[in-house]
């Protein structure tokens, strides 16, 4: 088995930039309510945001050996995505490795395990998303795959798929679907902005969301004043 694959097809920087204009929730809805990671995965600070291709890593629980190998092979703009068995009681990543990522121009770190040194990481300005925060240390023992498909946050992730993360969570977009998802996300964004405008002009939820017949069919009764 080849543990580390370096020949990964990544999306263009322009496609990543255009997708990054949309929120994770907008993208999730626009592509048919798919691609959302488990709601456990959240940023260590709500203002953190990223968009970039996934460099996939599998680590044994409480073991960050292959994470360190992944940082070595990552390219600027990559999002290092670490599947470690959703093991919460381990701080697999902290400020030292955060600075290693920052120095290489890595876009973000995402793990289903724990991280630590969170205040230092926030000050560093590297987006870090994790399943937990834990001060407990790790070992460096187990070899695993890098840039192979992995299961993460209830989704199958392929190397080079685009990950978009913000305060609400993380969503994945297949690299061969990105142009269609950008188009659909723009359409949804435009429709929502128009809906908001109409609310401010006096429209109501029942009227603008076409709920009159739905509520009638369900037998909604309203006591008039």
Distance between the termini: 73 Å
Q: Give the total of beta strands.
A: 9
CATH class (first level) name = Alpha Beta
What is the molecular shape?
Answer: elongated
Strand content: 15-25%
Helix fraction by DSSP (H/I, runs of at least 4): 25-40%
Largest sheet: number of strands, sense, barrel closure: 7 strands, mixed
Task: Provide the number of structural domains.
Answer: 1
The residue-averaged pLDDT reads 96
SS-derived structural category: alpha/beta
Rounded Rg: 20 Å
Look up the CATH topology. Glucose Oxidase, domain 1
Order of helices and strands: HHEEHEHEHEEEEEHHH
Uncertain runs: none
- List the total number of helices: 8
Task: List the strand order in the largest sheet.
Answer: 1-5-4-3-2-8-9
How does CATH name the architecture? 3-Layer(bba) Sandwich
Q: Considering the protein shown, what is the CATH homologous superfamily?
A: Ribonuclease E inhibitor RraA/RraA-like
EC number: 4.1.1.112, 4.1.3.17
Pfam families: RraA-like
Binding site for Mg(2+): 117
Keywords: Magnesium, Metal-binding
Structure description:
By secondary structure, this protein is of the alpha/beta class. The protein has a single domain, classed as Ribonuclease E inhibitor RraA/RraA-like (Glucose Oxidase, domain 1). It contains eight helices and nine strands. It has a seven-stranded mixed sheet. Strands 6-7 form a two-stranded antiparallel sheet. Strand 4, helix 5 (118-124) and strand 5 (128-133) form a beta-alpha-beta unit. Helix 2 packs across helix 6 (178-200) and helix 4 runs parallel beside helix 5. The longest helix is centred in the last third of the chain and has 23 residues, at 178-200. The radius of gyration is 20 Å and the shape is elongated. The mean pLDDT is 96. Keywords: Magnesium, Metal-binding. Its EC number is 4.1.1.112, 4.1.3.17. Substrate binds at residues 94-97, 116.
């Amino acid at each position: 088995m080849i543990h580390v694959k370096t020949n990964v097809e990544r999306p263009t920087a322009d496609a990543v930039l255009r997708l990054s204009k949309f929120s994770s929730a907008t993208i999730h809805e626009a592509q048919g309510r798919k691609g959302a990671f488990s709601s456990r995965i959240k940023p260590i600070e709500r203002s953190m945001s990223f968009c970039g291709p996934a460099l996939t890593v599998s680590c044994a629980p409480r073991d960050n050996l292959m994470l360190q190998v992944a940082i070595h092979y990552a390219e600027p703009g990559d999002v290092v995505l670490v599947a470690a068995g959703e093991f919460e009681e381990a701080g697999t990543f902290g400020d030292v490795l955060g600075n290693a990522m920052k120095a290489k121009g890595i876009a973000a770190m995402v793990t289903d395990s724990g991280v630590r040194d969170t205040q230092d990481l926030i000050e560093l300005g590297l987006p870090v998303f994790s399943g937990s925060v834990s001060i407990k240390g790790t070992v460096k023992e187990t070899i695993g795959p890098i840039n192979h498909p992995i299961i993460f946050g209830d989704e199958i992730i392929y190397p080079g798929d685009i990950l978009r993360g913000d305060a609400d969570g993380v969503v994945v977009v297949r690299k061969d679907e990105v142009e269609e998802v950008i188009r659909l996300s723009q359409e949804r964004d435009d429709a929502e902005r128009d809906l908001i405008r109409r609310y401010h002009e006096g429209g109501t939820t029942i009227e603008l969301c076409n709920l009159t017949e739905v509520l009638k069919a369900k037998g909604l009764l309203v006591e008039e004043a």
